[in-house]
Amino acid sequence: MKKIVCAKDAINLIKDGASVMIGGFLSCGAPDKLIDELVAQGKKNLTMICNDTSYPNVDKGKIITNKLAKKVIAAHIGTNPETGRQMQSGETEVELVPMGTLVEKIRAKGAGLGGVLTQTGIGTILEDNKEVIEVEGKKFIFEKPLGADFALIYGTKADKFGNVSFYGTTRNFNTVMATAADVVIVQADEIVDCIDPNDVVIPGLFVDYIVKREED
Fold this sequence. Notes:
- The structure is a single chain.
- With 216 residues, the protein is α/β, with parallel strands linked by helices.
- Helix content is 21%, strand content 29%.
- The protein has helices spanning 7-11, 32-40, 60-65, 81-89, 99-111, 174-177; strands at residues 3-4, 19-22, 46-49, 69-74, 93-96, 116-118, 132-135, 138-143, 148-159, 164-165, 181-192, 209-212.
- Strands 1, 2, 3, 4, 5, 9, 10, 11 and 12 form a nine-stranded mixed β-sheet that branches. Strands 6-8-7 form a three-stranded antiparallel β-sheet.
């Protein structure tokens, strides 16, 4: 049985300066309740790892607006002008990673791999400070695995064993991030006794805590 806790207690585990993966593609599948609690508790100097920084004052964008992240590792920031402004002013360090590469770096961490090789970025500034390896006459950038202290992810439904299922495209980054963090906190719309094994997307062995989105 996994620990079912309130959002306040779950987020209280996160300390200032922690690295935090946050699931979702824009607002689709974003753990909004957990993000709101992160902002309410004023956690700061975070390294935020995410696909995007959403929109100003919307889910992940609230972390940016409240200047709680010292560094952002993301594939896309174009929908949030405040992220770009903070990057240009030097207030927040932003590391942009091609989306496919970002997923593979996280997957590598979860799978216990030593890294991944990709041709994405060859001949560009993405090569800077990276090791370039030649395989059968082709050049590849070596990318190291990417993990985090915590992962805040969304699930449509979770059971008391921590198994998680999803509706539609809400699974996006949530599935891979659940494998690559030391502590995984799931925000679920519904908590049930047991999910049909055929519907399980994230096995419960990856999950540490469950938070119901609308707490009783």
